[in-house]
Amino acid sequence: MSQETILPTLPDLGARSDEITIYAGPCSVESAEQFDEVAECVKGLGLNWVRGGAFKPRTNPHSFQGLGEEALKIMKSAGDRYGLKTLTEVMDSAHCQLVADYVDGLQVGARNFQNFSLLKKIGQVTADSHQMVLYKRGFAGTIAEWLAATDYITDCGNTNVVLCERGIRTFETATRFTLDIAAVPVIHKQSLYPVCIDVSHPAGQRDLVPSLAYAAVAAGADSLMIEVHPNPPVALSDGPQQLTPYQFEELVAELRRVAAVFGKKIV
Amino acid sequence: MSDDNALEQIQRHREQIDAIDKELVALLNKRVGHSLVIRGLKPDAGMGLYDARREEEIFDKVAALNDGPLFNDYLREIYATILKVSKETPSV
Fold this sequence. Notes:
The complex is a heterodimer of chains A (267) and B (92). Chain A has 9 helices and 9 strands. Chain A has 267 residues and is α/β, with parallel strands linked by helices. An 8-stranded parallel beta barrel of chain A has the order 1-2-3-4-5-6-7-8, surrounded by 7 helices. The radius of gyration of chain B is 18 Å and the shape is elongated. In chain B, helix 2 (52-65) packs across helix 3. With 92 residues, chain B is mainly alpha-helical. Chain B starts with a helix and ends with a helix. Chains A and B meet through helix 5 of A and helix 2 of B.
């Protein structure tokens, strides 16, 4: 076979944007005080987005299910006060408009990866507003399935979609999920969508979060999702993987140094 | 039919398959050549490499051309592999 077609240099599949957006906030919005504390920390770092869970897809129906619309109100109020954009998960087609009315970005969680009616509804609700839709990969979903299903969201005209890798199920149990870092260059190669890496869910434990975050920046992720809680030991969900505000500040400082190596800024 | 006769027939069919494979390899490379040119043009057209709609169009078109004995589902499987390989081929 001829090797003539191979060029000497490889492409940089990590180079997409010179800014890396951080979506930080608690797993669940638990109270105005709790959310404000995180929003203040995020704002203090010069970041632009705060995230939080209002409707929680819990494995056990008896676990905390989120504060629902009350959480959306808390998020909107904090977003307005601190000048931050807000991001939350929508779980149910019936809630799409409600959620879109309160927050800037809508998230599709891993458990709704192939809930095509929800994907279509989100596409319809955001068709005019072009609100960001952060679409998480299911933990047993292939990249081909993910890219194909993205068209359910974009078919009504909103192409403002961010694809979020959050770890997949493998035989490994030392981490909560296996972070598929290769999703970054593969999606950059196969699509024009930006890629977010949720570093909290694959880690499952907060001490693993920094390493995954550095890897995500180095791989060329366009954004990172990091869970932050003022007091993780009393968090109503995912306490072990959430960082304290101080830990988050330290991490962002370090990420800024890592990003600078690649000529990028953390925003 | 003697065993020798069957072996001869198999041999004749295999020769034809070898000849078809020769054409297929050339055609597959010709096809990938066009894919790679399109890949280079897509960024300027604001298009991503993977196009779910176009892939479905291709599956429909080849199914319409199919007179068997290959079932459409198997033809789709073959084409899914061709498209997968075309996407995964390094551009350098």
